[in-house]
Fold each of these.
Amino acid sequence: MGGRLTLEELRALAEAGEIDTVLSAQIDMQGRLMGKRFHVDFFLDNAWKESRSCSYLQATDLEMTTVEGYQSVNWVTGYGDYVMRPDLATLRRVPWLEATALVICDVLDPKTLEEVPHSPRALLKKQLKRLEAMGLRAMTASELEFFMFRESYEEAEASAFQKLNTFSAYNGDYNIFQSSKEEDVMRAIRNGLAGTDVPVEATKGEADAGQGEINVRYSDALTMADRHAIIKNAVKEIAWQKGRAITFMAKWDTDHAGNSSHIHQSLTTLSGEPVFFDPDAEHGMSKTMRAYVAGLLAHSREITYFLAPYVNSYKRFTAGTFAPTRVLWSLDNRTAGYRLCGENGKAIRIECRIGGADLNPHLAFAALIAAGIDGIEKDLPLEEVFLGDAYSADDRADRADRDVPKTLREAIAALEGSAMLREAFGEEVIEHYLHSARWEQHEADRIVTDFDRRRGFERA
């Protein structure tokens, strides 16, 4: 897989006139790439070591509001700088942008030069270090769903996002002919990502008109999280270049399906041997895997905020739409919150189906891994596998902890009471993200919507 660069290769490409710009970007709380475009000469002289960015990038909402009330960053602290330190292992070409390379940065406190604990990449790395101390490594893959529209982003905004036309007129799930109509965009996405060391396995039509999915090769969790962030940025940029708009909203329209981000997980030894597989065990699930999955189930409600971070995220959880409503594990069953894949084989893994395409991959992976670690450390027993339609399940239905939270408020309450996450992430980190969640709910409660006007303008 091409696309990765060493510093020496970048220097040679710069001298040959093939690269003149380097994007130096951190991952923000929403999972976006945020940073600067450096002239390649300055990057090679200085910025490859470090650069600076405003600390508010790790304390804003989707609209870049300077939200008051954060303890780590506020008007009293003066919104000073954080250090952006490039992780040179992530340096790569960006084929869909002219003469451009990209590097992902860690975010450091300028006084201590320690990673800012609430920054998403630091949070994930902390959980991976916990696994490493146990002799384990996390492997993940996230599947991203999205809708593509005939309108451009500019046209969509000019119409106040009303009466948008999905690129296809009918459900094209797995339909080759239908997906051929959008191949101009999808081929550019596949080839562009392949050229930047994001190994795309396939794209396909998904379960509604205009919906698509992109599948990427399994990888270690940090690499996959970085790739996930790059994918979302790339898909939007390439679609924009082609005059189309794409959304990763969890639920962009009442009558259309939601956008998921299913997350596949397994563990290996540090040398790469699969840990989840036991050929002599039921379903091929090792003792470690059973405990890990038990941890996911035990803490699923507590970690839901990191899988569904916005008010809109919870509108996706509707029965009969392939989005889960129950915290159950099952075999190859798309109605359950957790699906066992690769049964009785070395590729055995657990798929979390709760997350939406609006999640931050670094935060989501970190939360899932923390829950799994807790299951392993406490040797939690795994309940019996659920069989059947999880949407209409009667057994275990009387337990409130079996329901995926129905609202952001529910998820906030579950996060607030999570002793596991407070220990795994740290008290200050959890309070940081609780503040972010409460602000999101506050804004949704405050702002008058089109729904309000349509329902009450005349009738109320």
Note: The chain is about 35% helix and 20% strand.
Amino acid sequence: MALTVAQAMTLPGMRMRLLAGRAGLSRVVRWAHVSELADPVPWLRGGELVMTIGLGLPGDPAGRQAYVERLSGAGCAGLAFALGEAVTAVPEEVLAAADLQGLPVLEILTPFIAVTEAVARWHADERVRGERRVVAAQEAMARAALLSGTSGILRALAEHTGGESLLLDPQGKPRAATPAGERPWHARALEMARGAARLSAGVLDDGIQAVQVQSLGFSGPPTGWLAVCTGSPLEWHARMLANQAACLLAMELLGVRAGRAKAHAQRGALLAAVLDGGLSPRQLGELCPVAAAPYEVVVTAAPVPPEAAIEALEEVAADAEELALVCARPEGTVFVLPERTPSGGGPEGAGLAAPRWGAELCGRLGVPGGGCRALGLDELPSAVRHAATLAARGDGYLHVDDLEASALLRDAFVPAAAHRFAAAALRPLREYEARHGGDLVGSLRAYLEAGSNLETAARRLGVHRNTLRRRLAVAERVSGRPLTDPGHRLQLWLALSLGDLVPPG
């Protein structure tokens, strides 16, 4: 609350009479100051009630008019005369200029020192009243934080500052506001947040409204932005309450983030169990909420810290963050997100490719990555393998569908038929393994992957070359055709590597 000239005239013990400048009675009195200088402006800061007996008044009418104009231009609150010492009446030029400038001119019958003490006492009392209001408001915001969280803090802040409040996410998107809905000043707050430093506060005061924007967080990138709009000028207690609210909101958001991190860790452990074969995809869907298929599977070229992964997920895919799966793997960090729907619902938008999460995630994390599509949870392990292979190239972000050969090869197969082909081609070998043991399928794959080099394949398997030679001989006998037959080799190779060659989706 500010002390105006009209209020100063009514302070206890004050005897003043308005002579001119009624339009300026709402001017704010910051201090009461005595000056008999012909030009006191260089010694003033604005907001002063200048008291004088008239010794410094210029002797000519033009000079007296300029005297008033200079005081008004310097932001003085008013001009008060004690008559009878140097002048018996205020000159007409001063009164006329005061009316034009809207600068109150008073006749004062109270000692100057009494006026100064009264103004100082009012400001001291107002400071105490303000501190009490701030304490009460801080207690109210703390209670609101416990009872209603973010919305309660914003509501209490708006109530106790007499303004409006707005919470922005790290990208500057509105998350909550009091009152609800978009307001004209929100655009200014958004512009200030986007142009501010990582951790900062700023005020934009146009003389009508004061918009204060403050970053949330105690270290690192802001977790959001708090904006408060109040009347101009911005009062000190509004600044203090905004700081208090920013701390409460930062702690609230940290608690929310900690809860999300714990939930992601639990969901990530289930995803890791599926990728390791210890949990079936069906069980994953039963144990935790999962978004509807299809999915975009993203793998970074190297593992990233869990905090950074979740932070990037919140910033890039805020709408899909709650149903996303994240886990760290030896080959890199794995993200499973619901696939974005194509843009445009009508005929004109049909067929437009939806932007992928992977490019934005990898760009935010600053690491290469790979992506693959999965039509269901059962395709996640295969999608992770293909995405990790692309991520290992280190060429920015690559998606399986952007590699024409892989996409065309996948489209050339009917998944169910391809599975039946692989099962039929490998059935004799698997049946022999089931009855007699031995790793015929694994040995055959290692041999073919090594380019039929017996020494290399045996070294990769960790067995003697004679052991591998005996296994291959059994595989030839069981399958009924020699491995030197090109057609037979191709059939076996396709059956063994179909899951790796043909990406899911």
Note: DSSP finds 17 helices and 15 strands in the chain.
Amino acid sequence: MVSSSAARRLASLLITAVSCAYTAITLVYFLQGAFYGVTAALSMTAVVATHYVNMRAGLRGTRPPLFPATLALQAMATYLPDFLLPGGMSALTAPMLAGSLLVLLPLRWGGPLVGLMMLSEGTRLWWGLAGAHVTFFYVATIATTGAMIYALVRFVRVTAELEQARAELAEAAVLKERLRISRDLHDGLGRSLTAIALKGDLAGRLIDRDPAAARHEVGELTQVAREAAQDVRQVARGYREMSLAGEVDRAVALLESSGVSAQAHLADVTLPERSEAALAWAVREGVTNVLRHSRATTCTITTSLQGGRVRLEVANDGAPATPGAANGGLTGLAERTAQAGGSCTTTPTGEGGFLLAVEVAA
């Protein structure tokens, strides 16, 4: 796709070519005398100079610093020579003024003004006995040249806007990927790091009185560390295949090894991939919060089918030790659940416990 700088160079070249073409035609005034030739040359210089200032600003999507004075000066330079030169000169300069009007003014104003210019020029030429063909030609050039200049400037501006939009989309994609990695690392590695810390503490307490049990815990710690390394690789690749049943099995094992009595009751239902992944993440985040932020001694994980939706509940008997401690992870979980078309709620229970409930489409 054409870059905005290339589009601006192309438009500038074409607009300059048009200006040069009209300027060259004014040389015919020298055939009528030196005075007329010099007057025409000076008048065209003033038109081209103000036209350049106006177009330079228009191509950048702005207005000249002295606007609307520059537009008024171009209009004066366009029509004043009609009183000094035989036959007038606005037929050669009005097309450039039409371009400036369409570019710098709203179309609801610029369009009617260009129409008024065409009517004025046609009337002047017709009463000057220029002939129907000549009159039509010069009147048509006002519309065609003005429209061409306007189209070139719009082309440049649209190209610049598209270029900016692409840059913003690319930046948004990078930010989205960073958020995904951050969320996946938090949700995925949080459980693994919590398990590593718990098993490391347990192994340290058992190493003197029960070396065999300590070695077992160290072995499981090593396995959890390998799973964490695998999680990191999957996050880097952007691929996270989650299984609800597998995640529940790992959660129960982790809870039991951490001294929390755990039970799981899963409904026999086949879920869409996005729904299953959302529930699996919910189990991981819920159990991580139970281990990290609560004083729970029991935890129950259940799923049930209710009217075309599956409800997951992770309930424990210990509220968070520090109110709001788990909010960061639960916020990420709520966002992930919403992306799967579900909902996520957390409520304290009457027995001093805590309930995480997630619903997704079955």
Note: The mean pLDDT is 84.
